[in-house]
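Severity: low
Component: inverse-folding endpoint
Summary: output formatting inconsistent between runs
Steps to reproduce: submit the following structure tokens with default settings.
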């Protein structure tokens, strides 16, 4: 891993005073050797939960596991303070995991913005049960960008809806709070179409998630309050930046059922950008794969590959070359009044939410890449 200790964000921003935001280039040392398209594919790390949901006969039980899957999707972001490489316009990433029963394709849509938001609807269809679930991700905040140790916080409300049954799960990703008391905590409940609560979900997005009967949960809260459990934790006055606060574990309520637990990090993970074992596989490029992959696939990017190999100067030079190539291509399209069009997705209507969404056109896995843009 390339150390960032010798680089100051403050000094970089001082040099950029008066510049357009779109022209500010952060040094490649602040990146991790993955494209953002690869980063979002980490959503699929815990697909065993989807398979588990399919095997369950009760819709509330299925919702519990789907909720655990939604939480697990953000778990790999803890300690991941490196910035993924911005995808180039037309860049793609495919991930085939036949053993896990899925294949994924993603494509970069826009090239005019430097803004990043967890915007967009996740849609999960359990075909066996003829069910469709939708939700959006919580907000993600990176603290101490200018000074101090970088750390990540997930916060906000996530609402998961089963459009077939009307069941709903409302999850609250709690903000850290002054003493770090709520750090990483997630709490919520599952209700049916008549708004009757069937289950309480709780845990930490960095660790694990449990479910318990609502009556048991309320009884535990009352008992804990009388015993002063919360006040004891408050007296410890953990700050969000206290390393010991990260080591807190979830207090398991009696009669709770474990829904999901994070896999332990691989050995020496902190020297490898804090990647999970899953993330470490995403940039693998076997000789047999080169003939199959689209020429726009992230694995073909020379700047990311150079950084992965520890060639920081080459990575910086290639990143600058690719960005300039994008700018030239954009000017040419503007001159010809040509609009960029995506190859594998199109804007349409999400059949479950009725909102505008990107829908897969199909055809990617036919392996006909003759018309793919030359972006590298």
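Observed output (run 2 of 3):
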């Amino acid at each position: 891993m390339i150390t960032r200790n010798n680089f100051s964000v403050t000094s970089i921003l001082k040099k950029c005073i008066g510049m357009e935001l779109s022209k500010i280039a952060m040094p490649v040392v602040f990146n991790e050797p993955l494209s953002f398209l690869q980063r979002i594919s980490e959503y699929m790390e815990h697909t065993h939960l989807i398979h588990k949901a399919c095997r369950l006969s009760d819709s509330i039980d299925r919702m519990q596991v789907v909720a655990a899957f939604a939480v697990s999707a953000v778990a790999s972001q803890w300690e991941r303070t490196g910035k993924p490489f911005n995808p180039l316009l037309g860049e793609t990433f495919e991930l085939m995991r036949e053993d896990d029963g899925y294949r994924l394709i993603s494509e970069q849509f826009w090239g005019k913005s430097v803004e990043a938001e967890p915007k967009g609807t996740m849609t999960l269809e359990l075909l066996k049960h003829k069910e469709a679930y939708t939700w959006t991700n919580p907000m993600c905040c990176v603290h101490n960008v200018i000074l101090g140790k970088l750390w990540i916080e997930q916060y906000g409300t996530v609402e998961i809806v089963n459009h077939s049954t009307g069941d709903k799960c409302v999850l609250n990703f709690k903000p850290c709070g002054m003493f770090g008391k709520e750090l990483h905590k997630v709490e919520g409940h599952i209700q049916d179409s008549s708004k009757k609560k069937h289950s309480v979900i709780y845990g930490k997005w960095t660790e694990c998630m449990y479910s318990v009967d609502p009556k048991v949960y309320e009884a535990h809260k009352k008992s804990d309050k009388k015993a002063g459990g919360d006040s004891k934790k408050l007296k410890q006055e953990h700050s969000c930046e206290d390393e010991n606060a990260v080591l807190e574990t979830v207090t398991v309520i009696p009669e709770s059922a474990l829904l999901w637990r994070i896999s332990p990090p691989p050995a020496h993970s902190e020297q490898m950008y804090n990647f999970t074992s899953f993330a470490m596989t995403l940039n693998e490029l076997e000789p047999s794969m080169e003939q199959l992959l689209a020429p726009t696939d992230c694995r073909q990017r020379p700047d990311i590959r150079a950084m992965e190999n520890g060639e920081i100067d080459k990575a910086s030079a290639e990143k600058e070359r690719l960005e300039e190539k994008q700018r030239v291509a954009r000017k040419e399209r503007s001159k010809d009044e040509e609009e960029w069009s995506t190859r594998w997705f199109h804007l349409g209507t999400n059949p479950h939410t009725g909102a505008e969404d990107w829908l897969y056109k199909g055809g990617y896995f036919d392996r006909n890449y003759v018309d793919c843009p030359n972006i590298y």
